[in-house]
Amino acid sequence: MITTYPASSRYSGDHGWLQYNFSFSFADYYDPNNMNFGPLRVFNEDYIQPGKGFGTHPHRDMEIVTVVISGELAHEDNTGGKEILRAGEVQRMTAGTGILHSEVNSSSTEVANIMQLWFLPEAKGLTPSYEQKAYDQEAMVNALLPIVSNHIKGESIVTIHQDLSIYLSKLEAGKTVNFSQAPDRKIYLFVYEGDVTLNGTNPLNRSDAARITEVTELAITSANGGTFMLIDLPGIG
């Protein structure tokens, strides 16, 4: 089953310094029927104004993945992690037993467009940790590039404490990529530029998403060119 969610179905708001879009219940948005998709608990697309951001705040028992689409984000936490995250880089933070961190757009001129994802971990009480890596954006072209995984290894892949993998792809016009999956797993797909069509009958445009179950073969095509994220998830939840 492929269920599509248009961009307009998200919960969106504007705080001036922050424009946000929530795909699942988060903060002041609560829908008991939209709490998660498997272990994927949060999928937010944010636009953070120059010099603005989130001050120091706590997290616990969550795997938090941040991908910068454009601009940059300064991260600092109480484990000693202190980095600038830019387009072409991915960050994983294990909140575990508890972590304090801040996230601020470190540019004085450019808006930061970020995707932040929260996943339920495989176990509670993990040791807090932080990992950040750059990936080859050219390797995304007409391919599925893994950037986060608990079992796929590589110099540009960050590890995560959950049975999942995150892929990025940039399809040229008229191109197709295919993804095969076990029948007891799930796929979450989000388009962040252009257009894609799933298995020939499910069109998606910018900021549209699909939640996919009971599909073992997925053909992803693009008529005009499109960039998307695909998350391979366990079937739990």
TrEMBL record:
<dbReference type="InterPro" id="IPR041602">
    <property type="entry name" value="Quercetinase_C"/>
</dbReference>
<dbReference type="Pfam" id="PF02678">
    <property type="entry name" value="Pirin"/>
</dbReference>
<feature type="domain" description="Pirin N-terminal">
    <location>
        <begin position="10"/>
        <end position="118"/>
    </location>
</feature>
<keyword id="KW-0408">Iron</keyword>
<feature type="binding site">
    <location>
        <position position="103"/>
    </location>
    <ligand>
        <name>Fe cation</name>
    </ligand>
</feature>
<dbReference type="InterPro" id="IPR012093">
    <property type="entry name" value="Pirin"/>
</dbReference>
<feature type="domain" description="Quercetin 2,3-dioxygenase C-terminal cupin">
    <location>
        <begin position="148"/>
        <end position="233"/>
    </location>
</feature>
<dbReference type="Pfam" id="PF17954">
    <property type="entry name" value="Pirin_C_2"/>
</dbReference>
<dbReference type="InterPro" id="IPR014710">
    <property type="entry name" value="RmlC-like_jellyroll"/>
</dbReference>
<dbReference type="InterPro" id="IPR003829">
    <property type="entry name" value="Pirin_N_dom"/>
</dbReference>
<keyword id="KW-0479">Metal-binding</keyword>
<protein>
    <recommendedName>
        <fullName>Pirin N-terminal domain-containing protein</fullName>
    </recommendedName>
</protein>
<feature type="binding site">
    <location>
        <position position="101"/>
    </location>
    <ligand>
        <name>Fe cation</name>
    </ligand>
</feature>
<feature type="binding site">
    <location>
        <position position="57"/>
    </location>
    <ligand>
        <name>Fe cation</name>
    </ligand>
</feature>
<feature type="binding site">
    <location>
        <position position="59"/>
    </location>
    <ligand>
        <name>Fe cation</name>
    </ligand>
</feature>
<comment type="similarity">
    <text>Belongs to the pirin family.</text>
</comment>
<dbReference type="GO" id="GO:0046872">
    <property type="term" value="F:metal ion binding"/>
</dbReference>
<dbReference type="InterPro" id="IPR011051">
    <property type="entry name" value="RmlC_Cupin_sf"/>
</dbReference>
